[in-house]
Structure formats: structure tokens, C-alpha cells
Amino acid sequence: MTLSDSFATLRAHIDEATTASLTHLLSRVGASGRSEEFSRAVVTSVSGGKRFRALMAHVGYAISSDTALETVSLPHLSAALELYQASALVHDDIIDKADERRGMPTPHRTLADHHASSSWIGSSTDFGRHAAILVGDFLFSAATSAADEQALTLREDCARAFARRFAHMHAEVALGQYLDITAEQTPLDPQRTDALSTNDSLEVALHKSAHYSVVHPAILGAICGAKSFDCVTELVDVLETILTPWGLAFQLRDDELGVFGDPAVTGKPAGDDLREGKRTALLALTWEASSPAERRALTDVLGVARASAEQIATATQIVERNGRAAHEAEIARLVADGHAALETSSLNEDSRTLLRELCSILTTRRS
To answer: Which CATH architecture group holds 159-366?
Structure first.
């Protein structure tokens, strides 16, 4: 069975565990008819998605416990990771003022529409944002509840390490998000080649995505599969060394799809990252290689929600011409760094084969 086949099998179990955990919490806190729209927004927020983070946890567990991947069962950790991911996306969409994700209206948009259709007083936009913040908070509570359930199944030393790692993960995402929105506020002077920094963009990607999407979930899974934390400390270091560059490559591929991806596949409108003004490594590499006139064309769309389709098309062509090849080379470098660490590691051949397949899935995806 290939890794892709195993992932396809595991996704159904992850979906089931995530829905069950969320439904249980909604019932436990007394969600009723008056909060029907809230409950619907909460449940809808966890639908869809690739479940990469939960799948990464299964990979870490399989390597740590020397267990066949398709036999791994991690319902609580799977739910915790996917519920936290949903929480982060709800808040991210509010920050980005994004009206659509995975081809569906975002929670703040749905709740704003509910306010408008109910003829309530006040601003529908404000209500949608405020209510969606609470949706994200609820999902975060559900994530921590599921993580607590997972910790209760572990030895005391592993439970402590697990709790520290989970807290580290969501704290680091907050830091990365702050660095991201700070970068977006920095003025861009088309006359300055150094107005954008590739290294700064990679730092944001490291904290906001690479560690969170790939490294931390795998290590959390590895901790869950260990007989004691002492038995897994070396593996934690090995996984961190291998997966960090691959996690960055995963995010850089995501950034490429944010500009060039097919909306029917990615679930996001074409050029969305440009309209949102994302200061990605792809944009930084493009900026460094562009003329002042080309940079002015880029600033016409970056962070401009009403940028026309023609302006987006022009900016996309500039990115294609000046940044895409260098960006692809950076992805290749990161992939090679991870492979070099893998080949010199103490992992057995089965684990190496598993991780090689994983790298391909992470870094060559089209959605």
C-alpha cells in the first residue's frame, strides 16, 4: 500500500474523530436553537481540507512505535490538530478579509449574511466578524479539549512533553501570524530592491506554517507512540532536522498555488494572495528581480481588494517571469536539505521510505 493509499484510508477516520469530538463538546456546553447559526458555522468550519496535520501525526506515531501506518489510531490527537487548524483558519480569514475558502463562504461572511437576513440592528459586517472570532475561539477550546483527552492516554513523562509541544505549536502560530500581518503593513518603495526580504518571508513561513503544519504534528504523534519520553528524544531531534526544510517547502508550494493554482482545485480565487498583499518568499524573489516599473505594477494590486482582473493578470505575469524559477529552485534546495538529513539519520529503511514518499506528497501537491 502506498502512502497516498494509507492517507486516503486514514482521512475517513480523522474526519469521523474530528466531527465526533466537536459534536460532543457542542452538546456538553448546551448549544441550543438560539445558537443554531453559531453551531452550524462551527461544524462547517471543520468540513473539507486535506487533513495534513493529523496525517503527519500518524506518520510520527508509525515511526516511533514501528507500527504499520494504516493501523495507527489517533482519534483524540487527530481531532485536536484539525480543530486547531479550523480555529486558525477562521481567525486568519477574518484578518485577511477573505470571503471564500474551499469554494465556500467563510464564517464571518456567512454570519454577516445571517445578520442581514434577520433584519437585526447594527452592522452586519461587524456582527459577522465578532461572531466568527467566537467561532474560532470555540474551535480552539475544542482542540485543547481533544488534546487533553490524548494526554490522558499517555505516560506521565510523555503527557508532559505532549502538552508542552502542543502549547508551543499554537503559541508559535500566533507569533508567525503577527510577523505576517506586520510585514503586510510595511510600505513598499518601487525604487528599492531591498524593500522585501526573502529571509524575512522564510521566517514568517517557518513560524506560521512549516513547524505547525509538518514538524509539530509529526513530533506529537511520535511522542504518543513512545514507551517513554527518553525513548523518543533522539527521534524528536531527527524528525525536526528532516522535516523543517520540508515544512518550509510545503509552505512555499502553497504560496505558489496562491498565485498560480487552479481555483477549482485550490478552493481559493485566482490571485488571492496578491490581493491580500501576502509578503511571501515568491513575492520577495520576484521583487528583487523586477524593474521599478514592474514593482509599481505589483504595488497596484498588493493588498488592494478591488484590484481588477487585468491588474491581477499583469502582476501574475511579472511573478511568472521574474520570480517563479528562483522560487522553484528554493523549494528544490529545501527538499534536498531534508533528504540529506534523512540519509545520514539513524532511521531504519522502512521509516526512510515512508518519509521519502511523504516529502513527495508535501512538496509536489497541486492543491
So the answer is: Orthogonal Bundle (1.10)
